[in-house]
Amino acid sequence: MREEMAELIGYEMSDPRVAGVSVVEVHVSPDLRHAQVMLTADTEIAGAEEVLEALEGARGFLRRELAVRLELHRMPDLHFALEPVAGGSRLGRLMKRIRKGRPREAEAAGDENKPVE
User: Fold this and answer.
1) Average pLDDT over residues 63-85
2) Structural domain tally of the chain?
3) Three-state DSSP class for 24?
4) Domain for residue 115, yes or no?
5) In which element (H, E) is residue 49 found?
6) What are phi and psi of 35, to 5 degrees?
7) Per the domain annotation, does 46 fall within a domain?
8) What distance in Å separates the CA atoms of residue 47 and residue 58, rounded to the nearest whole number?
9) Dihedral (CA of 74, 76, 2, 8) sign
10) Are 39 and 56 in contact (CB under 8 A)?
11) Does residue 111 lie within any of the structural domains?
């Protein structure tokens, strides 16, 4: 579910407010009635409230597409929780490194501008 949700938000939603949003994990209740979608967002692109508003507006589209792709008879109600990516947090550093394609050794060496060869 996490992979499909990430693909839908990242590639199929045309709303510019969801640019820079990454799906971290999805927790589904045992009875399949609720799914908590944990997200990170680069809040420099759009504010956290705008990102959540865009996702709430697209909830029906996301549920419908997920039900078709995952072939689920009962599609959980989606609840979105957003954790902004901060430069000082570990998750923020990881997300920044992923976007730049930087290996871990370059960051550990302290030279963040020079990739390890």
Assistant:
1) 86
2) 1
3) strand
4) no
5) helix 48-57
6) -135, 120
7) yes
8) 17
9) positive
10) no
11) no
Alpha carbons 106 and 52: distance in angstroms, whole number? 34
2-56: per-residue pLDDT in tens?
999 999 998 898 888 888 888 988 999 999 899 999 988 776 666 778 888 999 9
Strands (E), the chain: 21-28, 34-41, 77-84
Angle subtended by helix axes 59-70 and 48-57, to nearest 10: 60
Confidence class for position 117, pLDDT limits 50, 70, 90: very low
Is 116 contained in some domain? no
The whole domain housing 45 covers: 2-105
pTM: 0.66
User: How far separated are the first and last CA of the chain, in Å rounded?
Assistant: 36
- Read off the CATH number of the domain in which 85 is found: 3.30.300.20
20, 7, 80, 77: CA torsion to nearest 10 = 160
DSSP three-state, residue 109? coil
